[in-house]
Give the backbone structure.
Amino acid sequence: MSSRVPLTYGKKVLELFRNPKNLGRIEDANAEAIAGSLACGDMIAIYLKIDESTEKIVDAKFESYGCAANIAAASILTEMVKGKTLQDSWKISWKDVSNELGGLPSVKYHCGVLAVGSLRRAIRAYYTNRAKPDWLSDELTQEEKHALEEEKLMEVLAKKAKRAML
Ligand code: FES
């Protein structure tokens, strides 16, 4: 008998999981990033096409190896940032994403956090070889820290698993 409790996803999450918008990669993206989560072993990649003169996101796509919530979060996030400046996109929090989805089950908050974490990484990546704007903090945001912590933990566990196999 399984102890798993079925999750109650909202209509919007299920709709975007079944028919995600912006799924795929942008070959000539000028910013991209990936983020991985230990909690589930899932990964997400975000691709952005940015108009250099206006700093507006003209196209955004994603690839997700995550769960339904992660796919829906990345899908809605890429919709939310299209047409927005990088500064406005930077301000989008995982709570905004969750609200836009009509809410996420609490055990699935991190799926939204991971999507926002990878978007913020992509925005940082864009400024790697450009003058950094004032609004871009040096300190990592909550969403970026979350992605980093899980990746570090994943590395440690992978090492332990390798040692156990020797
Ligand atoms: Fe890992 Fe959702 S459970 S991204």
In short: The chain is about 45% helix and 15% strand. The first strand starts at residue 31 and ends at 37. The two ends are 34 Å apart (CA to CA).
